[in-house]
Amino acid sequence: MRGEVEHADLNVADLDAAVAFLTTALPHFKVRHRGMTEEGVEWLHIGTDSTYLALNRLGAEDSSEFGRLNHVGFVVEDADAVKRRCLEAGYEEGFVTGPHPHRKRVYILDKEGLEWEFVEYLSGDVEKRNDYSDAYEVKS
Question: What is the pLDDT of residue 138?
Answer without folding.
Answer: 43
